[in-house]
Amino acid sequence: KIPLLVDVDCGVDDAQALMMALAAPEVEVLGITCCFGNTTIDHVCKNVLRVLQVCNRMEIPVFRGASNSLLGEISAQYSHFGGDGLGDAEDPSSPGLEYLQEEDAVHALIRIINQYEGKINLVALGPLTNLALAVKIDPSLPKKLNKLCIMGGNLEGRGNRSVCAEFNFCLDPEAAYIVTNEFTCPMFIATLEFTRENCLTAEYFKNWVNQDTEKARFMKKITAKLPPRPTFVSYDSYAMAAVIEENIITEYMQCSVSVELHGRYARGMLVLDTDDKWKKEHKAFLMKKCNLDRFKERLWNALL
Ligand code: BDR
Ligand code: CA
Description:
Elements lengths: L1 E7 L3 H12 L3 E8 L6 H14 L7 E2 L41 H11 L4 E5 L4 H9 L3 H4 E7 L15 H5 L1 H10 L4 E4 L1 H6 L2 E2 H8 L4 H10 L7 E2 L2 H10 L4 E11 L10 E4 L10 E7 L1 H11 L2
Helix pairs in contact: 1-11, 1-12, 3-4, 4-7
The chain binds beta-D-ribofuranose and calcium ion.
Family: Belongs to the IUNH family.
Organism: Eleutherodactylus coqui (Puerto Rican coqui)
Protein name: Inosine/uridine-preferring nucleoside hydrolase domain-containing protein
């Protein structure tokens, strides 16, 4: 089985990506680490537990991580997915924070990556704060990872959080800088543009959530109050799919990447060295094309 660690800021699309992993028979999710992002760290933790409950997988350990960016810049979280990150569709029977592990997310990442050295895959679906802290404590982590798959950053300087920056990178630019520069393992990135170019239809979404299963009812409930959109972009699910089934991504662009930390408009923007001016050895794989039929099937199975 593919051993997997997932770092999330569990909003609706993180939940979709998690459910995709939990439905994949070839994957073993060893742990889920939580980071602030779509909502507060407490909500993120509760959301992950809620997803695990719906999927009947409460045995998977969940760890609480960073509650703010490295510079502590985020005073109020902002979400595409309601105040609580899961569409403000509360459920009183959801598990409480007492189900969290005592160990924190950063130390759990370090421990588990060391334990599964060479084999372990990490999928990062939120701000990269936990990963940046972990690599500062244990700089040997990157060489111990089989691969790191990130949802974040943008190709053309058109953001969804700020004018120029994508949400996950924008929420903690320093962490994104540290991770893109120091994780010299094979690194795969699903950028904002890539996820949008491979969006699904509103009709797919409707049929997906209207299946007669408990997981579909859950997905329908947590998306009911969200504003209707002409297309369906499950951002985080692309990064997850790329780890579960390698061939789902059919074309990559390879280049060195970094993150803008200053600037009046561009702080948090992904920077691409497409002409190889830096002559850096480490090149990231930016996803370019996807086998959409396979992706749709993986996502479909998430709610069965
Ligand atoms: C990213 O931002 C978050 O809101 C989503 O969960 C996704 O990880 C998309 O830019
Ligand atoms: Ca996310």
